[in-house]
Amino acid sequence: MVMNQPGFLFATGIENSIPTIDGGRHRMDEMDKCGHYRHWRRDFDLVQEIGIRFLRYGPPLHTTLVGPRRYDWSFADDTFPALRRRGLVAIVDLCHFGLPDFLGNFQNPDFPAIFADYARAFALRYPWIQMYTPVNEMSICALFSALYGWWNEQLRSDRAFVTAMKHLVKANLLAMRAILEVRPDALFVQSESTEYFHARSPAAIAPAETMNARRFLSLDLNYGRRVDSTMYEYLLDNGMTREEYHYFLNNNLKHHCIMGNDYYQTNEHLVASDGSSTASGEIFGYAVITHQYYNRYRLPVMHTETNLCEGPCGDEAVRWLRKEWANVLRVRNNGVPLVGFTWYSLTDQVDWDTGLREDNGHVNALGLADLDRKLRPVGLAYRDLIRDWTEVLPTQSVCLQVPLELDEDYPEHGGSRPRPIADPGATTGAPKNTE
């Protein structure tokens, strides 16, 4: 389909992470830590001042979903109509690293169905919204909650990891299906961390290969792609039944999806012979790793998260923005249908230096603006980048255009819907790169 202007999705996000720590007794609410509940109007002002049209944004799940089919829409009723009035397009982030207290954690088998009811209710209440990320970073959520022991259930076992993974992916699939009942033209931007594991020595090749297979698990299950034999045995050995596996193969909604790729300096790892890993810093970079994921799934791509701390020189984040943007252009010029870019998040974050494992109140200078809502140099650089490239990309780059109905096109307001003229799952004939 032809997308209304703008043709490229320049985005940012307002993070609604809500994992629990300390055995579930303490919640790390990033919207609260970053002051969004108090300053949401100013935050929306900032989005507009930078020239951003698309915002990864969602209501706080733990205070909105208050029980099975019980919802408190008070905050969402303030914010989502305000976004609409401002002409800002939400990519709605419904579940970000945590669950309401009544659901407990991601070991709970009741989570997927209750979450799907919530997604349907949200879509019915805000019918103008077309773009969703039902469950954010399913792989990271399962790893940090059930294999590393950091959040939520705080478990450290392969069986707990597989259980969390299958519940997260099933919740995502059921939510997509529920939303499509309300908006048959809904688009799902599945934000997921794109990783790579480098062997430190020949003895580390085997564990690195296993980790490089495991990095695809959430998307393989979400998109109905058969996993490799090692991962199939791993899933069955750790509690997934054959019936559950075939459910994922037979219930994908891939043709409604844009593959969201998140990339940070911490996404590449060095693996030791004992299977332990440490951050390697950027070795391959976004372009190389994105080609690996694109060649596996053949879906339109959006760069859905990146950032870097401003640092002592004051220009570290600006240089990272330029590097990531160069990678985006390289991917597009190689023929991959890459449709958007995101600096995440709008404001500085709090306590991500410890992965939200400790409530220290440490401000991390990662945002386009600081917590006083003053633009950082990277915010000014992103503003200039958007201004310079918005008109160029749709006309001078060969790339699939995303089907999108902006709010003014929604029939409720007398607009007309664009006529479909292309399959959103089509490709541009990009060459197949090897991994």
From TrEMBL:
PANTHER family named in the record: ALPHA-L-IDURONIDASE, BETA-XYLOSIDASE-LIKE PROTEIN-RELATED
TM region(s), chain numbering: none
Taxonomic path: Bacteria, Pseudomonadati, Pseudomonadota, Betaproteobacteria, Burkholderiales
Stretch list, region Disordered: 409-435
InterPro entries attached to this UniProt entry: GH, Glyco_hydro_1, Glycosyl_Hydrolase_39
Protein's UniProt name: Family 1 glycosylhydrolase
Pfam families assigned to the protein according to its UniProt record, in alphabetical order: Glyco_hydro_1
